[in-house]
Amino acid sequence: MFQETISFVSDGLKLAGVVTGPDDLKPGERRPGVIIMHGFGGHKDGPQQRWSSKQFAEWGYVCLRFDFRGCGESEGAKGLVKPDIQIADALNAIPVMLARADVDPDRLMYLGTSYGASVAVCAAARDPRIKAVIAQGGWGIGENMFRYLHNTPEKWARYTKMLEDSQRHFAATGTWPRAHRYDIVPIPEHLRGNIDGPSAFDFSVETAVEFRAFNPETEVARVAPRPLMLIHAAEDLVVPAEGSSELFRKAGKNAELFQLSGVDHFMFGEGETRVHHIVQDWLERYFPV
Question: Which tens digits make up the pLDDT trace of 3-13?
Answer without folding.
Answer: 999 999 999 99
